[in-house]
Amino acid sequence: xxxxxxxxxxxxxxxxxxxxxxxxxxxxxxxxxxxxxxxxxxxxxxxxxxxxxxxxxxxxxxxxxxxxxxxxxxxxxxxxxxxxxxxxxxxxxxxxxxxxxxxxxxxxxxxxxxxxxxxxxxxxxxxxxxxxxxxxxxxxxxxxxxxxxxxxxxxxxxxxxxxxxxxxxxxxxxxxxxxxxxxxxxxxxxxxxxxxxxxxxxxxxxxxxxxxxxxxxxxxxxxxxxxxxxxxxxxxxxxxxxxxxxxxxxxxxxxxxxxxxxxxxxxxxxxxxxxxxxxxxxxxxxxxxxxxxxxxxxxxxxxxxxxxxxxxxxx
Length: 315
Description:
alpha+beta; seven-stranded mixed sheet; five-stranded antiparallel sheet
């Protein structure tokens, strides 16, 4: 079968149109691909428009960015809890993720605004006020740069002194995540260190295991320590054996008791205390169907610690 010239021209024209449509569609799909990820944390809450304003700044920089929230329910001014939440969440995000953490009671003062690049290849945009203590320790410091506000600040915000989360941090993070600036263009390089908060690190002497209570599982009142599985297992405690636990706050004993180490809450009767390894593999205390922190007036933070005697309660 032969095709006449008009029909052949029509087929060629249709093929060209289809090819052009394919190129346009592919280009549009490529243009819509997110260029980077920004994850936000703050003590702002969601009662007003502060979080939305930060996100709006980022989308104005680059509408293809992917913006996610870690939490905005850090208790007001609680730098320590901000440090803890960053540390327990960041390892689950991929290399190149840019975190913005704004727990900043010193906003507008001479505290530095920095971007920390960790050895994991992630970036943390934050005031250098202790928020970066734990990610620096656990992910390692690759480099630290101070944000140059002459170039990395939302235009028109120069006379705003109390919302660096919007005007400086979100703006800088969005530019970095989108590739509009390199890490070197954030600002001048600082020594490879950050402001550190002091706290009790886990330690086992062979007689007593000590650690901090960095956080509460606030929804249920479970008490989380920073004693990880590896250090805890040095005690050689088996499931079902008892632990003698002393909890100390502000250098005063708040709780002392003996209860079993088990796998999960239902391994003890309702209303009974237990020790278990939580979802981040740290030793924790709970009451099955109860609230340990509320029952025994236990709180958390760098001034709270725990002492465990491994032999107490054993046959």
